[in-house]
Amino acid sequence: MDEVKQSGARDAEFARIMAVAVRTLTSDFEFLDLAHQLAVSTTQLLSAEAAGVMLEDSLGTLQVLSASDEDTRLLEIFELQRQEGPCFECWRSGDVVVAPDIWSVDRWPGFVEEARILGFVSALAVPLRQRVHVVGALNVFWAQPRSVSQADLDAAQALADVAAVGLVQQRLARETGLLAEQLESALQSRATIEQAKGVLAVKAHVSISQAFGILEAEAHASSRSVVSLAQDVVDRTLVWRDGALRQA
Amino acid sequence: MTDGASRRALFVAKLESAPPDSLLQRLCTLAVEEVPCDGAVIGLQSGGAPEGPLASSSPWAQEVAAAEFALGEGPSFHVISTSEHVEASNWGAIEFQRWPQYSLMAHELGVAAVFCFPLRIGRARLGAMNFLRAEPIELDDRQYLDCLALADLATYAIVYIQAGLPDSQLEALLYDRDSDRLRVHQATGMVAGGFDCSIEDALARMRARAFVDGVALYELASRIIAGEVGFNGEEWA
After folding, report:
1. A27 in contact with B, Cβ within 8 Å
2. How many domains does chain A contain in total?
């Protein structure tokens, strides 16, 4: 695709993302869902393999919030970045981190080892800001060498900024004062989803990743959010019976 | 250091150097020192409703919590059933109108503002922590995070208590909290599914089992996920 076409396609995709974001912001809104959509959009916009959002919790630990795919290994590679890696560095410093060849970076041995297994070659991380405070980062991975362009950086930062706007909007919509509550609530939603995966894995005799597939399919079929379904699964108001999720 | 990391370091240092009361007790005392509040109290929950106060910073805070429990309405009830936070920063706050009996009682006892947080891990509900003020106050982001941090520590301490373990070591608790949490949440869900128990019971059972096995929580979680530790009716298999 030549430069002009690429730019036009990118603008169109970005407009689409904004429309989706605005729609989610006005309804019964879960920040975790927005983060997931942004991660997916990031991969599309930047032709990347995977993307994810990490957020800082109340005790200053960087936690994985959402990724472009709920694959366990992908989520765990974000979780690994609590201690080292592009996302961690970005959050700590507040600066964009670009690694066109992660295998040549010796600051992140543990992370690189896992990233190699997943076939990641290049990485980018941009900060998620709320006013002056860096609350997390958006992390992007490519499976081919990528010399990260200014257009890539602008697009990634714009998406991270949409996330930041999302947080503000949620505050205003719910008339709750504080950013901290939104972040904590989002991270608790992530924990709930993981717990639900576990319940379903045992009840439906499937893997953790497959368990998420069940949740996702049901969310789609019943037009409910994954978080809401996950809550019901853990509460046992929704149970696995005769090959499907049903009211208890 | 980020804001959160320095907050954590401060709390850890203060909790470790405090006299050896129970950890929950120390958290309540620390709350009064670090957060603009005049009293702090922690209570457990059962069946989706608060139990009476378990630890408090003062007899005053204890009295407010005990009275709330007796009335059957108030911020603790709300946070436990909804998992939402309560911020009632002054007498005009809508929350006070929602709980007329609680408000009357709180007013009589000199409470002008209350901030209440659910103590939870995902969908598991462990209890509630109240921060009480004798003067109206609006918390800013920094103060709110302090409350959240203390509530978070209290949550993990309660898991130890419910697992029937000796008075929680802060270090062990922090280790639990930090290590491989996705996996631990997944395994907790598996335990709940495997034993057909509540997610709260699953947390306690995992914590107890990890202690007995002498392994970290995430190590047990890995074993559960790998199918090396399983379930047989009421017992581990």
Report:
1. no
2. 2
Residue A204 lies in a domain: yes
How does pLDDT run across B45-55, given as a tens digit for each residue?
998 999 999 99
Is A195 within 8 Å of B5 when comparing Cβ atoms?
no
Q: Are residues B118 and B197 in the same domain?
A: no
> Do A30 and A148 reside in the same domain of the chain?
yes
Q: Which of B27, B17, B66 is nearest to B158 (CA)?
A: B27
How far is CA B153 from each of CA B23, B79, B119, B157, B231, rounded to the nearest angstrom? 9, 17, 9, 6, 30
Residues of B in contact with A60 (CB under 8 A): 1-8
Across residues B169-186, what is the average pLDDT? 89
Is the minimum CB–CB distance between B225 and chain A shorter than 8 Å? yes
Model's pTM, two decimal places?
Answer: 0.92
In percent, the amount of chain A with pLDDT more than 70 equals: 89
Give chain B's mean pLDDT. 92
Domain limits for position B200 = 179-236
Residue of A nearest to B178 (CA): A61
Q: Which of residues 26-45 of B touch A (CB under 8 A)?
A: none
Which of A221, A220, A177, A183 lies closest to A65, judged by CA? Answer: A183
Residue predicted with more confidence, B76 or A184: B76
B179: number of CA atoms within 13 Å, CB side? 14
Does some domain include residue A183? no
Read off the CATH number of the domain in which B227 is found: 1.10.10
B236 in A contact zone (CB under 8 Å): no
Residue B43 has pLDDT above 60, yes or no: yes
- Evaluated on CA atoms A63, A116, A45, A211, the torsion sign reads negative
Please state the domain count of chain B. Answer: 2
pLDDT band at residue B5, thresholds of 50, 70 and 90? confident
CA distance linking residue A206 with residue A56, whole number of Å: 31
Mean pLDDT for A150-176 is 75
The stretch B139-147 carries a mean pLDDT of 86
